[in-house]
Amino acid sequence: MKTALRERDAFQEILERKEADLVHILRRRDGIAIEKSADQMDEIQYATERDLAIRNVDRDSNLLRDVKDALRRIHEGSFGSCMECESAISPKRLAAVPWAACCIQCQEAAERDRENGTESLPAALVNAA
């Protein structure tokens, strides 16, 4: 029991650090400014840099949401359980991706569905109906 609490506390500390890092990164959005130039090549370069900055902000925002969700699951006591099938998420997966909400099998199935355009409703919503 004490080992499980220590592991949970370690994951909480990792997630809190990640959350702080992401919040800091997201507060600095220098690359999104719209710059104008008379030179068409400069305009293309500015637009490319702006698009990359927007994609990075989007990625970091999604990751921050996942980290906050993982911290919420720690506080609720459901951390480490798959949100889809409710089985335990492997310790190796949690060590690699502490904010993982699904076991590897459910994550792979969700990614296949997304690639095939057949993304279904999360099991929690289906079961609630």
Write the layout of secondary structure elements.
Elements (H helix, E strand, L loop, with lengths): L1 H26 L12 H37 L14 H6 L7 H13 L6 H6 L1
Helix pairs in contact: 1-2
SSE string, helices as H and strands as E:
HHHHH
- Terminal residue distance: 35 Å
Query: How many domains comprise the coordinates?
Result: 2
CATH topology of the largest domain: Four Helix Bundle (Hemerythrin (Met), subunit A)
CATH arch. level architecture of the largest domain: Up-down Bundle
Instruction: Report the strand count.
Output: 0
Q: Beta-strand percentage?
A: under 5%
**Mean of residue pLDDT values:** 85
Computed Rg: 19 Å
Question: What's the overall geometry?
Answer: elongated
The CATH superfamily of the largest domain is DksA, coiled-coil domain
